[in-house]
């Protein structure tokens, strides 16, 4: 079942046979108050998804050049394309989870059986884990607005983020990447 912060609060209140109130209500108010930051964080990740995925896959290829050689898991180009596609799909589900404030969509639609599928297909999970670690770093940098022209070079694209502290959203996004990494480990 895919949940968002509101559905989760209703289910918890139903389980207690009590109305939503107290800490649950305060958490929902905070979720609403931080809504623009959440939307901007999702937009920062989604707007840079293709470059972030390309950089992550290029990163694992640079760290392990054997992946690009004949017999490597990024050779031939169809395998590289599949890797790029899969990483972008999982990244999309991370953004859905961040938007909803709940990981159930990520768990149900992307992570359920992912390791078993990769193992059956011969996809090296170690390289996949490293790619998602790189994606996590890139996404957190975009959310916290710490991406710099020095790090990105010609590809640098500045995205306005809301004023204020986005560390909680960055930590939330990082936790979703940690779920992906854990599912593959």
Q: What does this entry look like structurally?
A:
Helix content is 72%, strand content 0%. It folds into two domains: 33 residues, no CATH class; 150 residues, Phycocyanins (Globin-like), CATH 1.10.490.20. The longest helix is centred in the middle third of the chain and has 24 residues. The model has no long low-confidence stretch (mean pLDDT 88). Helix 5 runs antiparallel to helix 6. It is an all-alpha fold and 185 residues long.
Topology:
Elements: H1 5-16, H2 22-33, H3 35-47, H4 49-63, H5 77-100, H6 104-111, H7 114-121, H8 125-143, H9 149-152, H10 167-184
Helix pairs in contact: 3-5, 3-8, 4-5, 4-8, 5-6, 5-10, 8-10
The ordered H/E elements are HHHHHHHHHH
Assembly category: single chain
The helix count comes to: 10
Unreliable residue runs: none
CATH architecture of the largest domain: Orthogonal Bundle
- Percent range for helical residues? over 70%
The class by helix and strand makeup works out as: mainly alpha
CATH fold-level label of the largest domain = Globin-like
Write down the Rg: 18 Å
Average predicted local confidence, pLDDT = 88
Q: CATH class of the largest domain, anyone?
A: Mainly Alpha
Q: What kind of sheet is the major sheet?
A: none
Family: Belongs to the phycobiliprotein family.
Subcellular location: Cellular thylakoid membrane
InterPro entries: Globin-like_sf (IPR009050), Phycobilisome_asu/bsu (IPR012128), Phycobilisome_asu/bsu_sf (IPR038719)
Organism: Nostoc punctiforme (strain ATCC 29133 / PCC 73102)
């Amino acid at each position: 079942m895919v949940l968002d912060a509101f559905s989760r609060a209703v289910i918890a209140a139903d389980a207690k046979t009590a109305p939503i109130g107290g800490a649950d209500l305060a958490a929902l108010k905070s979720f609403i108050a931080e809504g623009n930051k959440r939307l901007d964080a999702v937009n920062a990740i989604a707007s840079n998804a293709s470059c972030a995925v390309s950089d992550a896959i290029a990163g694992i290829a640079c760290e392990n050049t054997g992946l690009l050689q004949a017999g490597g898991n990024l050779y031939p180009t169809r395998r590289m394309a599949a890797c790029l596609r899969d990483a972008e799909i999982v990244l999309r589900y991370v953004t859905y989870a961040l938007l909803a404030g709940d990981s159930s969509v990520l768990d149900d639609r992307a992570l359920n059986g992912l390791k078993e599928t990769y193992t059956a297909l011969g996809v090296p999970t170690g390289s996949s884990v490293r790619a998602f670690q790189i994606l996590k770093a890139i996404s957190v940098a975009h959310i916290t607005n710490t991406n710099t022209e020095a790090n990105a070079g010609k590809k640098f694209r500045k995205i306005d983020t809301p004023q204020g502290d986005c560390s909680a959203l960055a930590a939330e996004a990082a936790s979703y990447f940690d779920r992906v990494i854990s599912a593959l480990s």
